[in-house]
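User: My instructor asked us to take a sequence, write out its structure as tokens, and then describe one feature of it. I'm not sure where to start. Here is the sequence I was given:
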Amino acid sequence: MIRKSVASIAVLVTFLSVGGPASAGSLVPEPVVTGKTDQFGPGAEGDTWVGWTQYVKPMFTAHIRMQDGSHHQKFRRREGSHSFFGGFDPTNDDVIFQDAKGANSNLYLYHEITDTSGAPPAGINTDLWEWAPDISTAYILFGRNNFDTGSSPWRIVLYDRALETFQVLDSVENRCGCIWPEAVTDRYAAWTKCEARCHVFVYDTLTDTRTRVPNPDKQQYAAALSEDGQVYFVRSGNSCDANPRILRYTIDTDETAFVFAYPNGTNLVSGLDLVDGADLN
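Assistant: Let's start with the prediction itself. The structure tokens for your sequence are:
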């Protein structure tokens, strides 16, 4: 299992929210990284860095680049391994990423200044398959999969960086293989679970509550979060490229608003990212 490799997109798509929730007319997709296709799993840190994963046969490779184009770095942990971008650590601009080779997949932190990588906090990496990480100042969100039997669990795990504790937010059986970590902030964590239908779930660490984003019998996935409880996500028909739309759900008001419609045939399953107060050109 790799990080959202079931689809690719021609450009990284980052949606910008300046000065709070944006109206449908003010959120417009912009090409952030152009060039070869098979770019997916985007992320950004303020107006400084942008990151993504790119597939060039036969390898998946994590990339980061200064948004002004002045510096571009590719990295992996081991020779011959696949690396997948996860997210930027807001405290120091380190990058959390997935490194997979054969039957082994673990998470690491890439230090751009020294061009080296190191282990994450103790207990995150095990003999199981850790994947699809995201990071905030307070938390690390990731998946942990066990492939031993059909009933072995795939788990969504939240690590508290201050308390050094782990919390399982949700799980499915291996025979389903239908749960994906999405995004984490200093309060919220989001993931997608696809049992019959794909649904976006959000966990509020402050209130210890879990919310399922309302779904009118569609497929919903690829969640991005703002610090104030705005959940941006994709809604499509039965297939991921069937009339995909980006919507915004506000947790406090339980309201969903339309943001942007993509042409039929566009596949957005590879992920969204939300950058507050930045303008990427």
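For the description part of your assignment, you could build on this observation: The chain has a mean pLDDT of 87. Try explaining in your own words what that tells you about the chain.
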